[in-house]
Amino acid sequence: MKGYRALGQLMTLLAPLALGSEGCQGMNTPIYFASPVMPALAVTGMDDAMGNPPRIENGVTLQFRNPTAAEQKALDAQTAALGFMVPWIQRDHVHIELVYQVTNSDSKDGTFGIDIDGHNEYTEYNEDIVAMTLGEGNDDPPQYIPLIPVTPQLLGAGQTVSGTVREDDFNEAELDLDAIGRWMAPFNAVLINNSQVNPIGLSMVPPNVVIPALIEVDVSFTATAQMTCTYDIRVRDDNDQLLHDAGDTLFSPTPTLFVPPAMMMTTN
To answer: Is 38 within a domain?
Structure first.
């Protein structure tokens, strides 16, 4: 159970549905994690008491094994050589995509939106906390700034649409999360700008940094009609780090919740 969600959603830890052998998974063999059954991403399309579209959240924790003694020794040596922590689960070796399907079961057309947050082994990002900070002292609707925004789409009554949040989107999110978490980069500038176009704030990140991959993926779903959303998280695991052998133990880091600077100032 994840304790930081303002809406108190249930987190479900899912075992991977492995394709092929349970032994060596292979560099290009994807492993699929299905979206939780509860709470389902299903909305009625009716606005809440504040006049905002309904917002439902759930997420999936990707299960990785702990490093072996030899692997930990190598990580420690690399950390000593670089002068900063080197993550066990690294972006260069864990490749993530999310494939979603949205169905409009209403008799009217509607617009849906999908936001993606999550955490790596160091930092957790929760857009609800950010929205609370930005909304302090005013009555404006919440401003949600996710790690990965999916462009809102209009969906006709009775229709279904599928889409993919690509690996390069996750790569950008993983860079951004590490920048604002470990390296204190300005979160609003980093998240709003694409680093390939405008790398504002990223000058604070060491050029030889080893970027941690997401180990939890959280999904928020909104819609202006009665709709449901399901998704699969597709993971390619280059170094066979996903938990699957009976002798493996679960890698369970305790990331720090990212708190925007404005909230830090008001709580000190």
So the answer is: yes
